[in-house]
Amino acid sequence: MKGIVITVPDVETRLLAIAQLRKRGFKGQIGTLCYHYEEEQELKRVGADYVIHPLVEAGNQLAKHMLGVGN
What is the value of pTM for the model shown? Predict the structure, then answer.
């Protein structure tokens, strides 16, 4: 397996899932969501490789569409 994406809404569940994957030797990439900036470093600390902020991403996409960028 190359990687896994964890999208569970609860941050504690995401932290536990990532930590358990790493503890059990998962070497693939782990991507996850982050709804609050203060969670990002903790998610990375326990083993997440990629952390995205879905509301920020949605805002960026909305702005691009409204400005006609990339169309």
Answer: 0.83
